[in-house]
Recover the amino acids of this structure.
């Protein structure tokens, strides 16, 4: 298993982690397989979406905030229930196919670490399972 | 493949299944890998979120119900379309990394079976894929 | 790795791809494992839900549109931010267990390719990772 460290800077922030995950895949030596990228936190998630226009990520954060406002009359005393459900909506992990020794993406895709209650020091765990040859 | 049986008691209920899944991982003898936890139902899902304060799960259910009210002028005659979309929003499966022979979680994380149209008798399927050594 | 081609016909459309994925699983010769179905696009996703009553899928599209309206005062110039977030809400991939050489589903489950900004020519990638025997 591999571990990445991430320092987020905003309360809600999407961070492209392609390069770090690609380095792990290269180190593994696996040519064909699946890369599982897992967030060991409950107020952050992982998603895959467009990397070309930064407005896409800005709109995604806006839409999530409209659907799950930070202030919502929630019971949880810590006050960050919105972050918990956003984390589950994006998901605690994503799976990316490894093909020819590299993360195999569509043209516009990147992996985003989704911070929903930052800034914080965060971790990402990566595990690689080989495919049938 | 391994199978768990779960009896839900409420219409909408999140049930911590860590212990059952951990037992399966131990039985498998796999030290490094990925554990896929899959729900073979269309009105229930799986998520990973906080296990410390039960108010987090309560708020998550509240927020999902606000976004997807049970009564919504839906077409599906069975009347449970809200449960179907909530299941897809949380997801039919989750992947947890196995490290040193155990499910590898963050401090506050647990696996939750999410019942959205109970009470019912449910199943959970588990498959374990080994990582590169 | 395996690739499927899909031509969508509507702006928002859920297409059952069970048969195509099952053929890939059969060709792989894997008896026990996990099948990862991945969409290399950022305005389409994958989900698993009911295949019996087509009204379920109709209601799911309706509920997603209510939560994420196409017109929303978004920044992204291309105008399809709603499609991007819907793609992340359903997810860019799903994992289905392979058991006894076949996709192992619940009675009512099917895999749906979710088009959120069609019609377009799309791809789906499939990778198969074997389980411990």
């Amino acid at each position: 298993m591999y571990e990445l460290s991430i320092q987020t800077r905003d309360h809600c922030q999407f961070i492209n982690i392609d390069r770090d995950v690609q380095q792990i895949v290269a180190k593994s030596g696996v040519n064909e397989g699946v890369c599982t990228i897992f967030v060991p936190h409950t107020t952050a998630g992982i998603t895959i979406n467009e990397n070309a226009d930064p407005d896409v990520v800005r709109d995604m954060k806006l839409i999530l905030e409209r659907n799950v406002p930070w202030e919502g009359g929630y019971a949880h005393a810590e006050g960050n229930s919105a972050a918990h459900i956003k984390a589950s909506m994006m998901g605690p992990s994503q799976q990316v196919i490894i093909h020819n020794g590299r993360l195999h993406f569509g043209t516009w895709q990147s992996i985003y670490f989704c911070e929903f209650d930052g800034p914080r020091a965060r971790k990402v765990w990566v595990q690689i399972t080989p495919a049938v040859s």
In short: The beta strands of chain C are 2-7, 13-16, 33-38, 44-50, 93-99, 102-103, 109-115, 121-130.
